[in-house]
Amino acid sequence: MQRWLTRLSLLMAFAAVGALAVGLLFRFYRPPAERYPLRGIDVSHHQGAIDWTKVAGDEVAFAYLKASEGGGHRDRQFARNWREARAAGLAVGAYHFFTFCRPGADQAANFLAAVPAAPDALPPAVDLEFGGNCGRVPAGAAMRRELDAFLAPVERAAGKPAILYVTPEFLDVYRGHLPARGLWRRSLLRAPDDAAPWRLWQYHNRGRVDGIRGPVDLNVFDGDASAFAAWRASG
C-alpha cells in the first residue's frame, strides 16, 4: 500500500509540473520574432485605464482600439486610448464590432462619428464573429450586402481598404461571401492555416503587456517594418 501511495504521489507531482509548464507556455507564448518582428495589441474598455507609455516600451508597435459596436454603441475608453496611444508613438487603428441586427449603413455612421480623421491611422478594422453578436445568423448574401454597406462609406473616409477580423467559425460559414480584403485572423497559439491569406494574426487572448493590468489580446503583422509602413499607408 505504501509503495502504491508513493507512486500515486509521484504521478500527481509530475501532473502538477506538467500543468504548470503548459500554463507558462500558454501565458508567455509568442510567435518567433525573427519571422514576425512587429507585435501589437487590440483593446477595449475591458482593459480599463492603460499606461500607453509602458505599453510602447514593451515591444508593442501597434494597437487597434475598439471604437464602436452596432448602430449606437461607442466604447467609453476609445477617445482616451486613441489620444494617448498616438502620443506614445504607437501606430493606431480603430475597429468596429459588426452586428447582424443593424443595417450596415447605420453602423458605418456610428463608427465614423466616433473615429477622428487621421491619414496616418491603420486601416479601419471590422470585427466579424458570432460571439457576442445577436442571435440571428443571416444568409451569406444578406451578410455581404450589409457588410458592403458598412465598408463603402468607411473606406471612402479612410482612403484605404479595411481589414476584416474573422474567427475560425465565421470564416468557415462565410468564407465564400467575404469581399476581397486583407484578413486579421484569430488562431490561438498556432499560425493560421493556408486556407485564407492574412495580414494580422491574433495569436493570444490572455497575453500580458506592461501598462495593462489584466489580460489582453496579442497580435503580429505578417511582414517587416517596411511592409508594415506600406500597409499602414495604403491598406
Notes on the structure:
It contains 7 helices and 9 strands; from the N terminus they run αβαββαβαβαβαβββα. By secondary structure, the protein is α/β, with parallel strands linked by helices. The chain folds into 2 domains: 1-30; 33-234, Glycosidases (TIM Barrel). The chain has an 8-stranded mixed β-barrel with strand order 1-2-4-5-6-7-8-9, surrounded by 4 helices. Helix 5 (140-158) links the parallel strand 5 and strand 6. The longest helix has 27 residues, at 2-28. The protein is globular. Residues 15-25 have low confidence and may be disordered.
Detail the topology: elements first, then pairings.
Blueprint: H1 2-28, E1 39-43, H2 52-56, E2 62-69, E3 73-74, H3 78-87, E4 91-97, H4 104-114, E5 125-128, H5 140-158, E6 163-166, H6 168-174, E7 182-186, E8 200-207, E9 216-221, H7 225-234
Parallel strand pairs: 1-2, 2-4, 4-5, 5-6, 6-7, 7-8
Antiparallel strand pairs: 1-9, 2-3, 8-9
- Counting DSSP H or I runs of 4 or more residues, the number of helices is 7
First-to-last CA distance: 68 Å
Q: CATH superfamily of the largest domain, please?
A: Glycosidases
Low-confidence stretches: 15-25
**How much helix is in the residues?**
25-40%
Structural class: alpha/beta
Strand order of the largest sheet: 1-2-4-5-6-7-8-9
- The CATH architecture of the largest domain comes to Alpha-Beta Barrel
Largest sheet: 8 strands, mixed, barrel
Overall spatial form: globular
Q: What is the level 1 CATH name of the largest domain?
A: Alpha Beta
Backbone CA Rg: 20 Å
Q: Averaging pLDDT over every residue, what do you get?
A: 91
SSE order in H/E notation?
HEHEEHEHEHEHEEEH
Topology-level CATH name of the largest domain? TIM Barrel
**How much of the residues is beta strand, in percent?**
15-25%
The overall strand count is 9
Number of domains: 2
